[in-house]
Write a structure and sequence with these properties.
343 residues; mainly alpha; Na+/H+ antiporter like fold; 0% strand; disordered C terminus
Length: 343
């Protein structure tokens, strides 16, 4: 229920975070006056300091659930995996920069749009690839490669996109690489090595890992909404147009890249969803960490989470309806039944 209706839970939790001050004020005075803890008065704002830890826990859970075969697949099919990852880390930052300029965005909002384009792909793309009758194994390989390369790739593309326009400090880029290494890569590796050492743990931890990872992402986005609720109340609809442009053109670039690589249809679908869907929860956390003096930067990543989940779900349903009778195929052309455990 949590994973299937994640978009609904995202909407509900973010609405509560946005409306929390008025919800708190509506409680009886004799009740609220006796509660002074920041975690009770505004838990979303109070949780700002633990957002990196929530990402760390999420990535550790993902590492626990990452099948050993998927790591082998990354290197076994390295030309298609790393070429697909290169498409994502080149096309998405360029699209984000272009859309930001095209829609006349500046300052914090422009940085936030660029941040959306620079982060790695989202794990939700693996689930939607499965629903779209795409090659789930290839999708997981793409996400794994993009995630492991993020400490190097994200600062590089972020610096290229912002150094000439926003004068981004080199220390911010260094901090981005270190943060990604400590909160993303090392937890994934640690979780994977733990299940490699204790194979029985992989199966036993799967249910708990999915639950914890999804709850952590829900809270991260809700916390960002709470931290930026004043700016969200005044946001310009232009931001929605820019983000939608990044998302839809990202899907287009992913599918075109698959055609250029001569991938079969199931792998093109996986690459399309991987490129267009970004790990905006990670982007929102990075925005609050790296640009603590610019709270508006986190707005675009938080909004993109809703947008790519919505469009990705619609696209997956369209594809599933068109080819529900076809099973995904791997590079060799053999049929490959989708394995839900690989998500």
């Amino acid at each position: 229920m949590l994973e299937r209706y994640l978009l609904l839970w995202l909407t509900a939790s973010s609405y509560v975070a946005f409306r929390w001050p008025s919800l708190w004020a509506s409680l009886p005075a004799q009740f609220t006056e006796s509660l002074t803890s920041p975690w009770l008065v505004d838990p979303f704002v109070a949780s700002k300091s633990i957002l990196p830890w929530l990402i760390t826990v999420t990535m550790f859970c993902i590492g626990l659930m990452l099948p050993r075969e998927e790591i082998r697949q990354v290197f076994r099919r390295w030309p298609t995996v790393f070429t697909g990852t290169a498409i994502q880390y080149s096309v998405m930052p360029l699209l984000a920069f272009s859309m930001g300029r095209l829609f006349g965005l500046t300052g914090d909002t422009f940085i936030g749009i660029v941040m959306v384009g620079c982060v790695p792909g989202a794990m939700a793309s693996n689930v939607l690839t499965l629903n779209a009758r795409g090659n789930t194994s290839y999708s997981v390989s793409l996400t794994t490669a993009a995630t492991l390369l993020s400490p190097l790739a994200v600062p590089a593309v972020l610096g290229l996109a912002l150094s000439t326009t926003e004068g981004i400090d080199k220390k911010v880029l260094t901090d981005a690489g270190v943060t990604l290494l400590l909160t993303v890569v090392l937890p994934v590796v640690a979780g994977h090595l733990l299940t490699h050492r204790f194979p029985a743990l992989e199966t036993k931890s799967r249910w708990a890992g999915v639950l914890i990872a999804n709850l952590a992402i829900l809270w991260i986005i809700a916390a960002v909404v709470g931290l930026t609720r004043d700016k969200l109340a005044q946001f310009d609809v232009v931001i929605v147009g820019a983000l939608l442009g990044v998302n839809l053109l990202g899907y287009t670039a992913g599918y075109a890249g698959g055609l250029g690589l001569k991938l079969d249809e199931s792998m093109r679908r996986a690459l399309t969803l991987e490129v267009g869907m970004q790990n905006a929860g990670l982007g929102a956390m990075l925005a609050t960490e790296l640009f603590s003096d610019k709270p508006g930067v986190a707005i675009a990543p938080a909004m993109y989470t809703f947008g790519c989940m919505l469009t990705g779900t619609i696209l997956a349903r369209i594809w599933a309806g068109r080819s529900s009778h076809h099973a995904p195929r791997d590079e060799s052309g053999t049929k490959e039944e989708p394995d839900a455990s690989q998500t």
